[in-house]
Amino acid sequence: MSESRRRTETAAGSLTRRECVGAFAAAWCGVAPLPARAARPPRIACLEWTSAEMVISLGVGPVAVADTKGYRDWVVDPDLPAGCLDLGSRGEPNLELLTELRPDLIVGAYGYGLDEAPFKRIAPLHTVPFYDGTEAPYRQAETETLKLGAQLGREVEAQRLIHETAATIADLRAQFSGRADQPLAVVSMFDDRHVRVYGKGSLFQDVLDRLSLANAWTAPTDSWGFSTVGIEQLVAIGEARLISLDPIPPHVKIRIDQSSLWANLPCVKAGNARTIPPIWPFGGLAAAARFATFLARA
């Protein structure tokens, strides 16, 4: 159906199935849906990286994102669009700039403790609730992708993203068929004495399960799905593969390379330590597919 015909029918009171579904889903979220394929692209501002990843994955380029440098360092893919403005820190976005931008919609994820009221005075606010305990992270990423797709009039793109991500992981699972009995652990490094190890309740754990891979880290984790431990506690994983996520701060990498504690870990002595490119541990489906892809190359 042409866009002009769609507008004519809508004006006459005949909504398309896509618009009806979008209206229903957005009403569930408490925010009116944006017009499907409006005359101009919707102006979306994102308060943090997870929502930015999701919006871009659905084919919409945000006009502004909080901490764009951090996004490019930690999330990387999908790329921020050219001309995307920096809203300042994720903990304290620039309200003055946000007001000047006059967005059609503001999108932000659960977990930053921001007061919603100032943002709702600027534009409708769509909140993406990740790691709130209602669903496992991967499943919640699928749920929230559908909700955001309805909000943006991108239901088809949302369904496609869900199916393509599942297909990518299913295809990669075959590559791991000979490694199912070889556990691995995934860590982020922030200093030369501690690591963040991802386990139960993390997006990475959900992807490992879908790849039929065992996580060598079985200790309790927090509500975000990781444990922060001293490097010496990695002795517990034995000679399992150790996957470290970039970015590792340069001064930390220098100290790690010079650390006898690190060098004497069984997994390091066995040559089983690997570093892979950045993947946002608290991301959505794009992060899940990226993790599976780089894990297959490690």
Automatic annotation (TrEMBL):
GO terms for biological process: iron coordination entity transport. Keywords: Ion transport, Iron, Iron transport, Signal, Transport. The keyword Iron applies. One of its GO terms (cellular component) is outer membrane-bounded periplasmic space. The keyword Transmembrane does not apply. Belongs to the bacterial solute-binding protein 8 family. This is Iron complex transport system substrate-binding protein.
